[in-house]
Amino acid sequence: MSPIGGQGSLRLMYRANVTNIRHHELRYLDNGPLGNTFAYYVVAVGNDGGYTGSMKDVYSAGLMQSTSTKTSPLDQWGNVKIPRLPEANASKADTNGWIPVPQDAVQVEAYSSLFGLPIVGLEEFNDRDLNFTVETAYLDLSCPPIDYVPNTPSNHDFSILNITCLDCVYSQSEIGKVRSASLLGPPLPEFTVAEKENATISAPRTIHFSSFVKHLSQVSCAVTQRLVETFIECIAGNCAATKIRPSRTDHRSENVTSFDYWASDALDMITEDSKVRQSGPSSATSASALFLQRPDLLPLQIIGQDISSVKGGFVNLSTINPEVFEARASMLLNAVLQTFMSPTEFAGNLPTNFTKYGPGHIPAKGLVTVANNKSAWAEADPFNLPPPIWHLADPETPFLGASTNATVTRYTEVYKPSYAWVVLLVLSAALLFCAGAIGIIVRFATIIPDFFDPVLGLTYSNEYMPPVAQQGLLNPEERLKVLARTRVQLGYVDDGGMFKKVVFGEADRVKPLEKGTLYQ
């Protein structure tokens, strides 16, 4: 039992994680109805239809991220990127419609934007695991083959990359109000049956791209919005989107986008950023155009360096595969929209006071959440919303934040008993203790081995022990039988001499020893 007890003491406990699960609210950029109203009232109306120069720098910073960052699940500032809905992997969807998002060897075009989604409240959970879902919208393009017209004449004031919306209605006309209201959703009216059947009103709008340097390449693409729900997992502060599916709460039309409401300024910013006012060999293409051609390279052209399949280094859109162009161009559009919706969101250090981000809501029901009463919205239109919207649209607010509940898992390392070894240790220890106790009891109860043998030796030829002395030689067993009830002791006998003689004999024949007496 001793080896079992020894092993049991070594294996008595083991280390394990105790799981503690709780829920915590997070806020993230709402690019749905409330996000669009915020952009309209703060950017479009507040800036009189313009934009600040620093917003262009934010957009340029997104283009200047390294290749490894562009292909990673996080942007340069640690915000989680929303992937494009992978149509090719739809067959891998689970019973809840979730489609897995590849985590390794992804292309730049796998994501919907150059920027990730800013999320408030994650910082305090860097030592824990959590998962949550976010609902977002991103622009998608559908493009035909790109036209190429060589040797196109141009003047000295042109845009290397020109982006416009050919049929978007920006004025407060009836069509503009109808499409904008459909973009924002309830409590504003959406498309009626007649409007849905009228392609002039309900069909997707067209974004026109053209590269106009020595040679003209151009294409017109239908622009729609994809309403998606993304599952995000964070392990010890490292977050990534792992699953995605079409939104199950947002049922707005995919044919209306921010370009139907306020986003013309965003297109103008890309176009203005691409302008060149000097022709000749020193002219260089823009970062946006270079991204369309080679997103895997830093979009910084060196004079004389040709990366664009056109002599002189200028982008020829027709050399880009249409499907690839759709993905890259939509990334630019989504990035510039994020820049307008929240130019201060990307660098972090966001306020943790959730009241600054408006009331908690899911994006599809943002306007319903802040609507104070039905009557206030009865005659409302997207360009003249009731006061609650104005109160939320504080220019100092980083963005209007949708809410979600994260499941936070904390693992605490503890020691736990190994019950099998505990039982073996207790049993072996108990048996060993019992064996030792019985040994002690037997030791005191059985004195023959330690005491009786030397005493028995003193009985041989002992004249002071007549019972055995008279019977001659006896073996030990016979001698024990004779002396079974005989009491013996060390004592003395007085033989009349100077000293008293010490002997061993029967107690009634030998006197007990006395203190202070000399014995021989």
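Above is the first protein from milestone M3; the second protein from the same milestone is given next.
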Amino acid sequence: MPRWLKRLLSLLFVALLLGLATWFALPWAVSLPAALQTPLQPSSRYLSSEGEPLRLLLTSQGDRVAQVLRFEEIPTRFIQATLAAEDKRFFDHGGVDLLAIARAARDNASQSRIVSGASTIHQQLIKVAAARPGKRGWWVKTVEAIQARHLAMAWSKEQVITEYVNRISYGNLLTGCASAAQGYFDKPLQDLTPAECALLAAIPQSPSRYNPFRQLAAILPRQQRILAKMHTLGWLTDEQLHVAQKETLKLQRYHGGFEAPHAVEMLRTTPRETTRTTLKAGLQRQVETIIAQRLRALKERHVSQAAVVVIENATGHVLALAGSRDFLAPEGGQINGAWVPHSPGSAIKPFTYLLALEQGHTPASIIADLPIEYTTPTGTYRPDNYAHKTYGPMTYRNALGNSLNISAVKVLSLVGGAQPLLDTLQQLGLSTLTEPADHYGLGLTIGNAPVRLLELANAYACLARLGKDLPWTLVNEAATTPAPRRQFDEATCYLMADILADNQARQLTFGQNSPLRLPFPVAVKTGTSTGYRDNWCVGYTPEFTVGVWAGNFDNSPMQDVSGVTGAAPIWRDVFLELQTRFGLTWYAEPHGIVRARIDPRTGKRLTAQSPPVRVSHEEIFVQAQQPPAATAADYDSQGRAYLRPEYATWIRSADNWMGNLVTIETTPQARPWRISNPIPGTVVRLDPDLPMGGRRLLLQTEPQRSISWDCDTLPVKTEGDVNYVDLTPGRHDLRATEPSSGEVQRTHIIVHPE
């Protein structure tokens, strides 16, 4: 053998060894891109309770990854289209296609320019994962080729193609085949036709040049070539090819969805891959439509915004939440009216009356809706009714139904002042009430403290559950649903529901045919803040609670729009929608409830022994808390009910809507009395320079009566006809009871130490 031949063979052998080493050993020395070692994280997506997409957020890289699919979830037809477009010998080469490199070199040399590439799916996946900035020179491409070989040796073909179609960009911020199918056709990848698969497979080569929304004509020739190659490779029959070539592509742009934007924004504080919300998508859309329609009718009266919350009482699930008229509107659309605090007006009153019912008062208890002043640390407080009228003797039912401010303030004073109401509201989750009770005072019951619509609606949902409290939730996770907590007595809450559903009880203020009257029973209360800045309407059935706020985000006043004309029509439409979708019921009467006829002028029960009366209506009571029976002593010879002398001015005034149904009792015992010392809110500072350190406080009424005093925190002492207490630091609530009538009045004092 000639020497030159021996040398040539030796060189070829060495080259073969080097080639084998390069092919099999060198790739292990070059590590794969770190991104391939990290699982791809999909975009946070939010679904309705039924699984309908609400929103798909952008990832931290600024794209959308709808879903990371497993190999078995990727349709075979889509894989075939991808291989026909990018790498038909994918299952035959080892990560780098040497035959394709040779072909590309020949074609490029013959044309004296680059007309063909030879990168495999392995190489493209390396390129995507490495994400090297700047121009990719021959050295970078060489390293990527070695890494592609490493990838082919380390991963299965199925793993490589799965990662590729999940990570590749399909343009328009869409990463991965699942995102592309949704983004271009608004359908799952599994539902794509061969023609649609070929279109998506055509995009990754140049996502900007082959943008279907802008250059559909430019991408169609490439799509047709892919279909033809699929046919050549035996992946499409003649008939399938013909159908695919003739198919008209119907693009449907999907931006990631923008349903229930305010609710989704509330959930973004705790991001996760998939959040199944409690929202009902269809109901959510209808609620948003109702808001838009009703606000158009109120535009001329300067009502620009509204918010609605719908809660499923059994679970605490928020079924719909709309925070504004239009999230994308430039005038504060992003403000969430369901979460921003506003003054609730009279919408707080039911909780005041509920406290009274819990303390033994009844729906027939009488409150004197007459002018009154209270001395407070900040001055004199004089509540006034919405209509600037007074209504005389009112049962609790009618006082609450007609939303009388004076009556509500008086009832709150009777049950202990602002503190027990504040404690109740805080326990029900109204998180904005952070000031001490003295800061709000008795005005708390008529809405002088801002609250959130969502939290107030959930407080009403506690009433709807007949006293069982549950937290609201936007996340549909049954495993985290807590057990309800008993907050109020069941029978008491039933009385409250009956009062709030009584259309007759609100007739004086709202009339017979207001928007609050529905063709089925619903408990409801409206609220209007001072100066017509906020409208509220909150109501419930056993199944659902609906809360509505209406107003303006700049806090400008509406033009004489109250809760019954602003928020109530929206509330009404939502409840009609709930009735249509789900059906509604009413409460079964709980054990221990009794019915009796009463005289609404006195609140007393009418029995067989009572004299005939000119007015009466049926009332319900907890059995152990029925009012005393009416007797002949309660009426004059004309059947007029006797009222205390404090009503004399009202009877003679134009506000007297009872006419000659009432008169004044002139006997001394009927004279009104009040606590003259201490007045509610009296502040005492102990002083060692005073006799007995200033600790003795006299308890007095005007006029003087035989009164029984008691206090839970101080012993009441008596010397002759004088009652007094020895003071200690703290707040002390005192009660004065007239034994003959059973009338109770309350006051409280605050004692500071020396």
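Note on the second protein: Residues 1-28 form one domain.
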